[in-house]
Amino acid sequence: MSSHAAAATLDPHDDPTTTTGIPNKKLLMWAFLASDCMFFGCLISTHLIYRLHPPPGTPSARQVFSIELTSFSTFILLMSSLMMALAVNAIQKGNLKSMRWSLLTTIFFGLIFLGCQVYEFRNFVFEKHLTITNSILGTTFFTLTGTHGLHVLIGVIWLTAMLIYSFTGRLTEKQSIDVESMGLYWHFVDIVWIVIFTAVYLLEYI
Amino acid sequence: MEALAKTDFIAKDDQPAKPLVLWRPTAKTGLISWLTTVDHKRIGFLYGLSALFFFIFGGLEALAIRLQLAVPNNTFLTSAQYSEMFTMHGTTMIFLVVMPMGAAFFNFIMPLQIGARDVAFPRLNAFSFWTFVVGAIVLNIGWFTKDGAPDAGWFGYAPLTTRTFSPTHAIDMWVMGLQLLGVASIAAALNFIVTIINMRAPGMTMMRLPVFTWMTLFTSFLIVLSFPAITIALIEIMMDRLFGTNFFEVSSGGLPILWQHLFWIFGHPEVYILILPAMGIISEILPTFSRKPLFGYPIVVFSGASIGFLGFGVWSHHMFTTGMGTTATAAFSMMTMAIAVPTGVKIFNWIGTLWGGHITMRTPMMFAIGFLWMFMLGGLSGIMHSAAPADAQQHGSYFIVAHFHYVLIGGSLFALFAGIQYWFPLMFGRMISEFWGKVTFWLVFVGFNVTFFPMHFLGLEGMPRRTFTYDANMGWATGNLFATIGAFILAIGVATFFISMIYAFFKGERAHKDQWDGRTLEWSLPVPPPEYNFAVIPTVHARDGWWYAKKHASEIAKETAEHAKEDEAHGGIHMPNQSIYPFLASVGILIGAIGVAVVDHDPSPGFWGTKVAITILGGAIMFVSVLLWACEGADGFHIHLNADGSVREDGGHH
Amino acid sequence: MSSPATTPHDSTDAHGHDLAQNRFWIFTQIAMLLAVITGLELVTVYLPFVAWILITVLVVLSTVKFMFVIFYFMHLRWDKAFCTILFFIGLVLAGGTMWALLKLFGAEASKPLTSAALAPVASEVRAA
Amino acid sequence: MRLHTFASLLTKSARFPALLGLATMLSGCFWFDGPQSTFDPHGPVARHQMDLFYVTCWVCLVIFMAVGAVLAYTNFKFLARSDADAHAEPPEEAHGNPLVEVSLIGASVLALVIIAIPTLKGIWYSYDVPADEKANAYVVTATGYQWWFKFDYPNEVAKTVDASGKTVNAAFSTANELVIPVGRPVEINLRTLDVIHSFWIPKLAGKVDMMPNRANHLWIEADKAGYFWGQCAEFCGESHAVMRFRVIALGPREFNDWLSNQAEPARHLEAPVADEAKPKAQFASYRTFKRNEAGTTEAFDADPLAGWRKQQQPSPGEDAALVATGRKLFASKTCSSCHTVRGDGYIGVVGPELTHVGARSTIAAGLLENNRDEVHRWIHAPNEVKPGNKMWVSGYLANQIKLTPEDENALVAYLQSLK
Question: Which CATH class is domain D266-419?
């Protein structure tokens, strides 16, 4: 860290004003994601622990789940990750317009994912009669996927705010790190879903 | 963010003007300056002040407990009051005293030790502090409501904390308060990690970091990685209490033991979060006052790392009596013994530091050596617990109470007191009286041992903790009376400390720069340090950088003069702007938390009325504040130093 | 330590442009790959094999997806190694904790009391 | 090293053990005795745990003495004695001393191994009854409630009288006083139906928690006949401190006598002999107690086993008429909706079984000695004795139960008669 190095550089992976060359925001985001690993690790553990010994009378997850819908929303989330990666790529090149389109698509996919989740929850509660209070499966399932959904929602809000912000003219390739750290968050939400898709959904079909 | 802003700054002029809400406060004195400050030293001071304030609270709770137990069958407190006292004593001392006191030193000292002008994210730092205050308020608000303070013990084992067994809002406040303290701690810790990794002065390689900074780094990692576990546990109990979920509802197959696991996955690293900063402080004081570099620096650092890492694998030794089965018990028993090795290594190296040195017995040094003795005792009784079958007799008894007070008072608190005495001249430019410092030490030392040593015997004689009364025939009366007398001696010692500290703050003898002939960079600063810390960012050439600089004064002076010119050529000293939004965001959180935890929901079925409204209001305030916080950006201004050292600010505030 | 490595502006641009072009295709291909793996996972669960084989396959496939996302989409591959280390500290601890928890709760001693196991006590009470 | 330095080192390092010894002697006055002392084991499990404790204790003491001696020596030897000394130029950065470091680490590991071996043995030993004695083990089930313990004897059968007057089998259970046979391992299944409790009889074994939804167990064995104090050791709410219990270990004959007495339905006194001269019920002669006042007398505590044996005999001066009144009140004041008295038709299951409550040495979860005054103290104001207890909250308060002195008198007589 030194103020001697004043020349700006456009290489997004090197910030000469920090000791390690990694931008502060990126380091912050990675440290936060490490913390979030523990967060989701504990939450997923809770679900799996309760799955080990289901008390009698617990509805079977297999009867409740709809793997087609979940596969679709998993696909959507993966695609939103792709669009996010492209958005970061675009802003690093300084291509604001391309970034906006990519961001918009990411938001769109994020909203589809959330829509699927809302549909899924409504379907479970009203038609399959699995609620957050009526069984331990409902409790852990809704809490886990709901917490993930909340992360997606926060991501969508962040993306939207960034999209709006990009029209103020204050967002240039020099601030690409802002978009990039947002991207890290979004991808993390995606990889958490990769784990949930396997550990919560697919596991029930074996 | 701030580091980047330096380069941004040059190109600021071509940016559009900001709307009124994004104008930055500039007050340097008065209430607004404190609410909007982003200066790590001011925030450190605020942390310290709050910690000392809650220390009085926690201490009074402890005295109430000791008074109740002074004689058998006492009626000073009712059972319900007693439960509130020990719950809040534990919670307060851990989360509102030792942790923020550590945070105070992290904030104040760590950036100075690595030669930085501030932490990586100054506004996030302010947010951490205000959220900590908010959490403390929510935890303590129960004393003033009809529900009373939280009363289920500091580790709040489910299902005692479920609605069935704790129907009032007291536990909601405890849950919400801890949740907010978790948010504050994680935010602060992330900031410290980035600061230490990324904001070091030129030449400050990792293996030249002062040990205190190393321990700050490890502590921050522990916070970041362990708090999520309790966050999940608290979310689960909160869901149970608010929405009737089944996490700990036994009749639906809930497993209360899960709470214990999640809690101690957090709780054991938490113990190291409390002790590692203390070890860091001790590793600063011992070399300074024995005029010798720290013995075996790399080993001290690596043992710190291994304590931190192993600390995640021993949590179940708090649960030896829960019937985990033989294999699990054996595994955790062995892991616990293993963690004693790096801890022992530290003690050996501290003694190695003293060996062959020139020991000056100033007050900080007395506390530091007191720490060595007491921490050794606490550590050894810890080894006794690792023998699981023997622990079956000790668990939940006063033996445990004795053990962890030896670690937390004899360890953490002695070190924190030592730290205050050590850095007070730097922080405030005044000296705490040496005479009264020594009086404090002996009162605290004697009082502490008289209080807690008999508790070992009480525990082995079968006295369980958290009991508000006992019969005379149990043979516990003498020990308890001793303990109570000791507690009052300890209290007098602490009072002496507070008074001498307050006196020193206003009227104490002026300290001079580098009061103790120190080794690390913070001692290169004038006392108290100026807002910008370093007139010129120092270049570090050795592990004990300031000792090196003093030995090579002329070369360093030349180097500094060159860097000063370069600095000025690049626009002077960059300072971050103040901001009100971290504070406002925390206020929003407070309102939301009160909505969740304190307000009764409307009796009308299906709709929670006021509760939801207040919660949404708080959430909205927080959301808007964070949004404006993001939009105002990490701007700053420049300071130029005149030849006489006076300050000239440049071009107004951006 | 920060050696003020100032890369000339234009060369970075050209370099960056190439890089960006390449990455567009890398990202797109990886996304396709991820979709395919997801499909494979979906097929896997219906295969008539023993549970532990299927679970192992699922874990491996998800790990592959996981790694692709963090190393490519999240740039770890191109970033300083420290980012990877930082994230993996959390990941390894979280994984270890999950493993330990599942082992602990899977153990015989942790089998919860079903209402049937509680019955001796309960039924005696009722009998009385 | 010069001789006199060595000598002074010796003197100085000798000071500390001497001080420690003195402290030990001073503390001796509140050390070994006491009814819950872990230093006075009466069974193999507790003895095993104490031996392990001593191993850890000695290893730690030796470490403390050795390291402490070096530390103390360092403190004195290297103290700066002059101003120049205090401002000595610091030496160059050194790299520690790998040989010292490694040997110290080695020594620590060795010390830990000394502890680890008996620890591992102890973990398996204390977990379950040794295999060769498994067949001989006596099984009971202990269930924790807020704030009392219930003991079920699943292998025994009790008798009760059904509505038609026929004697039928019933569950065999008692409360707060666990009676076990001497010299036989006793396997205790630990259950709880509300919060977490912990089952601890310091002289017989270390504690094991009663966890909701979890099948924990513990084994104990008493060497000889005796009377042991136990207590809940995990915070379980407002009255955790007064959630106690007693364990009575009896020889085979006495144990069998106790079993057969317990199996009987509640005792009924013979119809009162008309005795006009005998004064009617005595009122208001009960002692009053202060809040938190001890519930046992010194005489009882001196030899509680004798107290327990005495309690098995009918108390003198029983008034059959009064007892009969008490029995009726027991139903009309709704006591019977929570308590079982086999043979009297009372089948409540919320509170402790009272069929033979008069034959217990204590009441209110091991808290109060079982005599007229204390029983009266308990039923008169349960909340004073055990804050927040169910009998008070969901009994007295919820059902608005008011007891006149006459009622209390009759109830005391009834409860005392249940031998």
Answer: mainly alpha
φ, ψ of residue B39 to 5 degrees: the values are: -75, 125
Q: Does B205 touch chain A (CB under 8 A)?
A: no
* Chains in contact with A, counting 3 or more C-beta pairs less than 8 Å apart as contact: B, C
C125–D143 CB contact, under 8 Å: no
User: Does the distance separating the beta carbons of A42 and B228 come in below 8 Å?
Assistant: yes
Helix (H, G, I), strand (E, B) or coil at B166: coil
Annotated domain spans of chain B: 361-509
Min Cα separation D148/chain C (Å)? 16
> What does the mean pLDDT of chain B come to?
90
D137 touches chain B (CB under 8 A): no
Q: Does B104 score more than 50 pLDDT?
A: yes
For every residue of B482-543, DSSP letters joined together read HHHHHHHHHHHHHHHHHHHHHHHHHHPEEP-TTTT--SSGGGGS-SSPPTTS-SS-----SS
CB B454 within 8 A of CB B406: no
CATH 1.10.760.10 positions along chain D are 266-419
Q: How far is D298 from chain B, CA to nearest CA, in Å?
A: 8
CB atoms within 10 A of CB B55: 22
Give residue C126's pLDDT.
41
Task: Residue window 551-580, chain B: list those with CB within 8 Å of chain A.
Answer: 563, 566-567, 570, 573-574
Its CATH architecture, for the domain A24-50+66-205, is: Up-down Bundle (1.20)
Gap between the Cα atoms of B307 and B303, Å rounded: 6
Residue in chain B lying closest to D85 (CA)? B358
Å between B507 CA and nearest CA of chain D: 27
Looking at domain D3-24+33-78+96-127, does it have CATH number 1.20.1740? no
Token reading at D54 = 């001593």
Question: Do D207 and B396 lie within an 8 Å CB cutoff?
Answer: yes
CA separation for the pair D36, D34 (Å, rounded): 6
Task: Specify the DSSP element, H or E, that contains C67.
Answer: helix C51-68
B114-to-B76, B107, D118, D335 alpha-carbon distances in Å: 51, 12, 47, 72
pLDDT tops 50 at residue D320? yes
> Mapped to the 3 state alphabet, what secondary structure does B419-430 carry?
HHHHHHHHHHCE
Q: Which two tokens stand for residue D417?
A: 């008669």
D244-263 pLDDT, tens digit each: 999 999 999 999 999 999 99
How confident is residue D13, by pLDDT bands cut at 50, 70 and 90? low
pLDDT of amino acid D27: 53
**What mean pLDDT do residues D367-380 have?**
92
- D partners (3+ CB pairs within 8 A) are B, C
HSE-CB for B505 with a 13 A CA cutoff: 9
Which residues on B lie below 8 Å from D74 (Cβ)?
Answer: 351, 354-355, 359
User: Which of these, B248, B239, B224, B88, lies nearest to B153 by C-alpha position?
Assistant: B88
Under CATH, to which class is D131-264 assigned?
A: mainly beta
Contacts of D110 (CB under 8 A, 6+ apart): none
* Contact between chains at C113 and D141 (C-beta distance less than 8 A): no
State chain D's mean pLDDT as an integer.
87
The per-residue pLDDT for range A18-59, each reduced to its tens digit, is: 888 899 999 999 999 999 999 999 999 999 999 988 888 788
- Looking at CA atoms only, how far is residue A162 from chain C in angstroms? 18
How would residue C23 be classed by pLDDT, with cut points 50, 70 and 90? confident
pLDDT at B527: 87
pLDDT of residue A92: 87
* Cis amide prior to B603 (ω within 30 degrees): no
Q: Does B536 touch chain A (CB under 8 A)?
A: no
Q: CA nearest A168 in B: which residue?
A: B16
